[in-house]
Amino acid sequence: MNFQAALFYFFAAILLGAGLRVIIARNPVHAALYLVLAFFSAASLWMLLEAEFLAIVLVLVYVGAVMVLFLFVVMMLDIDPDRLRQNVWRYLPVALPVALLIAVEMVLILGARYFAAAPAPAPLPAGYSNTKALGEVLYTQYVYAFEVAAVILLAAIVAAIALTMRRRKDSKYIDPARQVRVHKEDRLRVLKMKVSRYGEEMHDHDAPHGGADAASSSGER
Amino acid sequence: MISLPPLAYADLQPLLPELFLLAMAGIILLLDTALSPANRYVSYLLTLATLAGCTWLTLPHLGAAPATALYGMFIEDPLAAVSKLVLYIAVAATLTYARDYLKERNLYRGEFFVLALFALLGMMVMISAYHFLMLYLGLELMSLSLYALVALQRDSAAASEAAMKYFVLGAIASGMLLYGMSMIYGVTGTLYLGQMRSVLQMGAFPSLPLVFGLVFLVAGMAFKLGVVPFHMWVPDVYEGAPTAVTLFLGSAPKLAALVFVLRVLVWGLEPLFIDWQQMLIVLAILSMAIGNITAIAQTNLKRMLAYSTIAHMGFMLLGVLAADRVGYGAALFYAIAYLIMSLAAFGMILLLSRAGFESDRLEDFKGLNARSPWLAFLMLLTMFSMAGIPPTVGFYAKLAVLEAVVNQGYVWIAVAAVMFSLIGAFYYLRVVKLMYFDAPEQSSEISAGADVRLVLSVNGLALLLLGILPAPLMNLCLYALKASL
Residue B52 and residue B77: Cα distance in Å, rounded? Predict the structure, then answer.
């Protein structure tokens, strides 16, 4: 077993262990963190296959963006792990034998007889760029798939907005366009007041007036 | 390093309907944000205009020889052209029936039209796919839009639950499909359907891992078609979704799913037909049995029609499992006939519903004859057609499929199918009995626009006309298969 194979088994073992802990971890935050570990191990495996672009994208996008968001959501939600776990023991007697049976059957079929390891491909030349190769097929041979995937994302955006956007009745939302278009006349009323002497003005004081009226009347004076 | 020729305009020409649809969907999406609710009819009319434009762009492909484009990822052949044309008509009819229903439930929004167009685009990508990746991407585009459409009625708990179920089970089905595809890719070394077929024809592959992948593929497709034992989501989603959405997902996607099955099993994996034929026999018999028997116990018409869909999908698979050109043509005919029937049945529920009243229980159809003899007659035609009573198109569709099966020597399957249709006739005729022999419970006026009544009348009479003169459509289906394969 050479060094590469040893690395492969090392990362594969961590990946499997982390994947298992994602399912069985008691605490949802721990489960999310184990998923991060699983992504890191998978990225290392891709790195061994000389797919460095995919490896880095996996770390950047999934670990850096998706999982961080996921952790936020998990921390915000009030998840009671014990309540979720109640049904596990009820279904386990049925689920476990079925899962084991499927696993055994798959191992029997997918044994080394048909899926023997192919001879390892020759190592690529030093100047080979996986990123460039991916880019070249992505924008030529697979351009149709690439565009349809973009449409799927657009549909997802439309669906997400349609399903979640609702206007709150009590929101203090201000429409900037209406705010800019406002005129002085809409807000300010200039009152013409009779010029009066000091003694008479005392009489008028009990007449109601708003802030704008008061400001305009004092400006007039 | 592979060097491919750059794309030219000629490469994009077969894609014109798809490109036009995508561009119009974008335009409607942008334009709708500027429309006030009173002007929403502009989006509606633009959507119908888009479908008309797509029809005009697709028609020339009807007589053309099969041609691939975009480095062999896309195929335009008569089968694709026929299916797409039927889909345009189905979506246009769906939107016409759904309009008033949506208005009354505050769902008459631009997103409905845009998501419906995206779902249609996904179906078109599926239908014209010549590569496993495109089949999958088209399916995802369609499914994602459908999940969102089911959930669009946000204040309805039933709709949200239906959407959640549909989403989770759809994701499992997609996972199965992908797993099966990866297995078959692992053995054959190609994802192109044409190459896969020729590689498999040379033989020399161990059959066990291929069948292993095939099992997952068939299970995934069975999930999407909604056939037993992968049918659990169908009744809940049909009942929970707003009826307008139920109509949408009960009509056009069924035809698209059939073409998906044909592309995978026939275009790609026909050399393995001995294996998939056995799987389809089990699926078809179980679907016809459970679908027809369970439907008897339903009191909700939408739920009853959901079980009837399961039974019909089983019947349609009979044509596929005959594994010859005539059988595939019969299955295509069955799918188109079913499309017209389900449009008429759900269209009737939509027409009779009004604000605050869904009209989806069987009792709501009591004495419909006294309220509107013409509508009752149309519903009678629909139910007769679903039950397979001559001279409606449902009878001829069943006959064509059974003929294909018997020609292959599977007489016992044909006998079983006839028995189950006889059981199924009970619950269709019960609706007829309720309409004609029971006293009405509802006495309110049926309010529906003249255009809706006209389209529904044409739809219902088409069932009769195609039943009396099935030859043109049947020939079209057979031609589509023969010219494409």
Answer: 20
